[in-house]
User: Which sequence fits this backbone?
């Protein structure tokens, strides 16, 4: 099942949850304010995919938890050591945008904005001290994520990751939550203006999805709707020679086989009016 959150003529102004029907062209609206439920009754209205005006992030997460250096080759390309335990950081929820919404190059620190394609896990029920064996029973599904990063802030100026990972629009998510994917071996790639920049499979994750849920739930409660970004493959822009950062007019496309395609244009943030 594919659950989405959309704005269209048939939805309330703030949007509505829906499920993508098997024909791939129709969305059936369903009831729900926080997370869609598998047993939720349909809302009666149906919306053609072509009638969607806005693809909202498919979950409004209470937290965005992310993993750094979770692919060995990515850890190595940045000149760092391969970690022996999950490296966890947080992104602000104000980073969220949906499918087809622009990634904004911020007015401050716009020149080293980097791309990172990732599989995202959406938590379906509260999880604390969850075992690896039980971890997947707490998952609602999976979606595509783009962990956009201002590398100058992250790597040189601040000496930590909070600001560089949390500019507005730095977490595109969507277009839907796929509930039937197997996270153990999914192909993840990023295309920039059509060119493949990153490509690997989740089989290469050093810490797989059950291990990550076990680890994160050992120190914080994962609430329903929480999102975990599982890490990015090698091929990021700052590690290339010469570096390749996002520029105004680019189109970034995250593809995860069996999950979906998340595409976002890149635009320069407009200066505030005086």
Assistant:
């Amino acid at each position: 099942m594919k659950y989405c959150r959309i704005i269209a003529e048939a939805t309330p102004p703030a949007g509505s949850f829906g499920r993508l029907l098997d024909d791939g062209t129709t969305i059936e609206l369903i009831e729900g304010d926080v997370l869609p439920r598998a047993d939720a009754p349909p809302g009666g209205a149906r919306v053609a995919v072509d009638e969607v005006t806005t693809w909202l992030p498919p979950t409004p997460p209470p937290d965005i938890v992310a993993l750094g250096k979770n692919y060995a080759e990515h850890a190595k390309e940045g000149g760092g050591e391969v970690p022996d335990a999950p490296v966890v950081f947080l992104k602000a929820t104000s980073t969220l945008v949906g499918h087809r919404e622009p990634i904004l190059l911020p007015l401050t620190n716009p020149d080293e904005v980097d791309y990172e394609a990732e599989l995202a896990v959406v938590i379906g029920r509260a999880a604390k001290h969850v075992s690896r064996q039980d971890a997947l029973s707490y998952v609602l599904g999976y979606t595509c994520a783009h962990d956009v990063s201002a590398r100058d802030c992250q790597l040189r100026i601040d000496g930590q990751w909070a600001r560089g990972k949390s500019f507005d629009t730095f977490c595109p998510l969507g277009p839907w939550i796929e509930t039937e994917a197997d996270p153990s071996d999914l192909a993840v790639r990023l295309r920039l203006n059509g060119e493949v920049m990153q490509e690997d499979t989740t089989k290469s994750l050093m810490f797989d999805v059950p291990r990550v849920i076990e680890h994160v739930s050992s120190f914080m409660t994962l609430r329903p709707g929480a999102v975990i970004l599982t890490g990015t493959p090698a091929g990021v822009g700052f590690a290339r020679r010469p570096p390749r950062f996002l520029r105004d007019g680019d189109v970034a496309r995250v593809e995860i086989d069996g999950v979906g395609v998340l595409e976002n244009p890149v635009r320069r943030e407009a200066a505030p009016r005086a």
